Every structure is written in C-alpha cells, then in structure tokens.
Amino acid sequence: MVNWLQYTGNNFYSQCITGTNVSGCFKLICLLPTGDKDSVEEVQKIIQQLTAEISYKAVRFQAISNSGIHNENIKVLAPSQFLITVPLRGLTGYRECQVRHWRYYTVNGTKLLSSVRDPEELHQWLEVEQFSKTLQQWHEKDVNIDGDLVPAKVLILFRELVEKSIVSCNLSSKVTVLESFSSVVRVAVETSESQVEVELVPAVEIPTCWPEKARWPRCLKRWPSQEKVQCIKSLGFDLLARSNYHWQLCFSRAEHILMEGLDEDGGCRMKCFRVMRQMKEDVWCAGNKPVITAYHLQTVLFWTCEKYPRTKDWRCFPEAFLRLVQKLHKCVSQHFLKHYFLKNTNLLKYANTSDLDLVASKLAVFLENPVFCLD
After folding, report:
1. Mean pLDDT value of segment 82-97
2. Ranges for the Mab-21-like nucleotidyltransferase domain (predicted)?
C-alpha cells in the first residue's frame, strides 16, 4: 500500500509530495492492480495440469510446481504476456565445455559446407557429454545431432506433446497453441478476466555452478552484499530452448534472490519498481506485446541499486523514483540496456526502434512534469 494515499469509496485522493530538489509534485490517482495475482494463479493452475500430463507422456519433461504467485518458473512480462519455463529431466552433473567445436549441420540434420555461426554472449551450445549423468533419451535423434542437444528439435518434440496433452486433459476450451514463425511454443490461455499469451520454454536447470562468461560482480560493489553475491552464485543458472541452435542463459533464481529483501533497510526500492511498472503498463508502454517488459524494468532497478547502494538514497520516494525513471529514459533513448549479469549483452538489441522512440518521448514528457496519471 502506498502510504500517502487516502481512499474513500471509488475515489482516490492524492496528496502532493515534495522533496528536496524535486520540482513540482506527484499525483497518484489509482492503486496498483489486484487482478495480476488472480491471473497468475489461474494460468499456473492450467499450465501445471498441462505439464503434468506432458510429464506423464514423456519422462524428459517435468511438470511445473504449484507454489503460488512467487513461482520461479513463471515470469510476468506484461499483464497478458507470460513466460513459463518447463524443467527438463535426466541432465545432471553439468560442466563447462572447454573445447571449441565447429558445427556443420542444419536443425533437420542436413550437412552444411560452412559452419553454423557462433552463439552470442547470452547463448551457448550444449553437448550431452557436458553432463555426467543423462537419460538415454537425450542421446536419441529426435533431440540430438552429432552429440549436441538442439533446441529446435527439443521444441518440435515439446510442441507435439503440448498439442496432444491439451486434448487428453480436456483443455481445448482454455488453451490454444498459437502459430509461430519460429520454433518457440506459445499458447493462448483463457482466464476468467482475459486471454493471456504464454511462451512455454523447456529449460535445463543447472543449480551446481555459475557460468564462466557471467563475470559478476564486475568489481567490488556495495550492492549487493558479498554474502548475497555468494548465495546467488551458489544457485547456478538455467539454459532455455528459445532458438534453433543455441541455448539461452537465464538467471531467474539469481534475480529472485536480488528482489527478495530489497528493502530490509527500510528503503522504497520495491515501491519505486511497482509504481514504475504500473506507469509502464498504463501510460508509457501499454499493449499486449510491449517493447518494454517488466524484465527490462527489473534490470533497470538492479543497475540503479548498484549505482546508489546507500540506504539514504532510497529514503525519499519522489527522488528515488525520478532517478529510476531517468535511468529508464536514458536506456530507452539510447536503445541500450545492459544485461545485469552479462555485460556485453544489450537487452534492447532486437527491439523495434520506432516503438522505443515512442516510449522515450512519453518518458521525456513525464520527466518534464512528473505527474502520475493512471486512471
């Protein structure tokens, strides 16, 4: 609850807030939405049922857990856009690959004369031999080419299982597989309030080591604490099947720990994040497939927390919030937002530049006259 709001009936009355070096005043005329929680719970229940059926049909896939709105498998990118990771079984004892190999195949298994391009920093190849213990099924041709686990082939198999399981679970009225130009698996889920688009992503969970290419923290920083850094790095990372050849690195457990206990010092970091997310969804970047997602905002928050680690930097909400929005505006204007764990990865590299410029212009208007207008 934003403590400077007063609520009477259906009307919200805002109180002007002033702070040192903050021009104008803020006016907030609505609370954060309560529908998000219900939507997450509905989608989670349906996908849990679906993935349980998939796991029954194919032992390599594991059902997602039913652990409430803080489920680490679920990312709410926007109110109607979710990403849910589906863990893969039978791949344990991961180790980094030390030898570079050239690949000369297509995802269909056809031989090429020239090698497939190397992965970008956020991606990597994945060989079965990188695991000390594997199920025999991961060596089969339906997912494996020349010893590589090929994401596109895993996704083809997974899509077939999703389609069959929707029918066998009698979920056809609630879940529809969406057409896609790529191999990713997206479904439309009908909730009591609206339709939600969900990307279902097979994921190799690697809780035993930290990837070498993620050289984090870059130097000695006051935020997060060294104790939290060690805890985060002990939780490992995941590899997601979201492209044809290369697996995408994912740090969802690390990000969850960073968000946990963010304001143990009595600061307003989470309040800033929630209000910024609401402004993004209602004013700056609305729509079903926004160019800026909650994940981008979370990354902006991490960078700002690192730059301003002191408790006193997060005492005054207006100042702290403006600082966060200014950082977001800079990133969107420059079309550049650095991944928090992989310094050479730009999270906005493939974003539509016209859409980014439109968001930047709205942010600029807000910064000229900081007024919350969320009705």
Report:
1. 97
2. 71-261
Domain membership flag for residue 117? yes
pLDDT tens string 149-200: 999 999 999 999 999 999 999 999 999 999 988 889 999 999 999 999 999 9
**C-alpha–C-alpha distance, residues 199 and 184, integer Å:** 7
* Residue 203 backbone phi and psi in degrees, to 5: -135, 135
Last residue of a domain, one of 227, 250, 273: 250
As given in the structure block, the two tokens for residue 243 are: 């492209």
Domain holding 309, by residue range, is 261-368
Instruction: Quick: pLDDT tens for 331-369.
Output: 999 999 999 999 899 999 999 999 999 999 999 999 999
Contact 54, 61 (CB under 8 A): yes
pLDDT in tens, 27-54: 443 333 445 788 999 999 999 999 999 9
* 240 and 302 within one domain: no
Place of tokens 């979201």: 242
Asked if the structure places residue 8 within a domain, the reply is no
Number of separate domains in the chain: 2
pLDDT over 70 (residue 285): yes
| Number of Cβ atoms within 10 Å of the Cβ of 28 | 20
Question: Residue type at 11?
Answer: N
How far apart CA 58 and CA 160 sit, in angstroms, is 11
* Total Cβ atoms within 10 A of residue 317: 20
Q: What is the pLDDT, as a whole number, of residue 69?
A: 60
Q: Which of 206, 226, 250 is a domain's end point?
A: 250
